[in-house]
Design brief:
Helix content is about 75%, strand content about 0%. The chain has 5 helices and no strands. The longest helix has about 30 residues.
Length: about 130
């Protein structure tokens, strides 16, 4: 039990990652898939941030030889990753809007059903 308690952040990261991947795989709605990807990205953020903070650690700007310092690099990288993730999510939502305009739906099964006759006709023309 202490192993679980000592590594709670890693277990939470694992749970969030599995939940995000499940949403991406199990849902046919494109917006829900994007939400699943955002949840999965959050688990990656936690995976990087969790070991970056040391208990009792201080900022690495204090001039003390014997102080325990927390590494600021994971936090800086995650700030960049958050900005990229938000931009990617916005682009994905814009693409979903264009798909909705073109097909009239954002359900994956319905889009594939509309595309099936066009793919079949293309295959027949090549023969």
């Amino acid at each position: 039990m202490t192993a679980i308690a000592n590594h709670f952040s890693y277990w939470a990261t694992l749970f969030i990652a599995i939940a995000g991947l499940y949403i991406v795989i199990a849902r046919g709605n494109l917006v829900k898939k994007l939400v699943g990807l955002a949840i999965f990205q959050t688990s990656v953020y936690l995976l990087y941030i969790a070991p970056g903070k040391l208990i009792g650690g201080t900022a690495p700007i204090i001039a003390d030889k014997f102080a325990v310092y927390s590494n600021p690099l994971p936090h800086v990288l995650i700030l960049t990753a958050i900005v990229v993730g938000v931009a990617t999510l916005a682009l994905g939502l814009a693409i979903v809007v264009r798909i909705k305009e073109a097909y009239g739906t954002i359900e994956e099964d319905e889009i594939l059903a509309q595309e099936q006759p066009a793919l079949q006709q293309t295959a027949d023309n090549k023969m």
